[in-house]
Task: structure prediction
Amino acid sequence: MHFLSRYNFLRRISACICLVSLFLNTLSPVFATDPADIITVGSHPASSTLVGTKLYVMNSNDNFVSVIDTATKKVTKSITVGSHPISATIVDTTKLYVNNSGDNTISVIDTASDTVTKTITVGSHPVHSVLSGTKLYVSNSNENNITIVETTNNTIVKNVDTATAGVIPYPSYGVVSSGKVFVLNVGSNDIGVVTTSSNTLTKNISLTGSPASARLIGTKLYVNNLSSSNVTLINTADNTITKVIPVEAGPIYSVVVGTKLYVMNKRGYSVSVIDTATNAVVATIPV
Result:
């Protein structure tokens, strides 16, 4: 997926979250009315990560990370990183691993000094990473693999293919559960299951469409199939599909509130509410 398309993808997700938050009244109003509540950062902020009282904002078109003091609502520092920083993963509250999708690197930020201490070269177009133990699993979305980084010394352990030979899966997202990393392969419409003890691909789970994102509840993984009109439910203990839940067109993201899963449907202009006890849709909310 091209960077700008991915940025628009993330922006649509953010808009959906705002709408659901307002409907549920689970957050304070998301639209700032006081100028003091509007914080200027860099160009195209794609995501943010909270570490203590500091919010780190990835400015995907400006190649730096803005550090916001959430108590004062002021930007305290701008940290230069690689090209097109798009997401980040925190390790032990002391190190922030920033995925630079434009130059195939990860910038390691020391959160005490807010300086870059290491730059790690990974695969093509890293867009997402997840932590399992001390190892960081990085999705290289323009290749057919993930890169595994040992965070204790910031070295590359290995690259692991997430699909069969000859297929470019464009891995874009990962979820850790049951000693495994479940890698969403957008290009091959499946999930690559990587066992963390051996760091090998042990299975591919075929889906009905292109997986956009997933939400883990216990050992149940709810996968949003963007190019279809359903959510695939996977038991992460045994890697089996237990149910395919019909929703409206283009499920792109989901949020858990209590026992309900709220699924944002990009092309259906709606939110499907799934009861996670019965795994059935109990309501559809137009947005």
In short: Residues 207-286 form a domain with the Thrombin, subunit H fold (CATH 2.40.10.480). Residues 173 and 184 are 5 Å apart (CA to CA). The chain has three domains: 45-121, 125-202, 207-286.
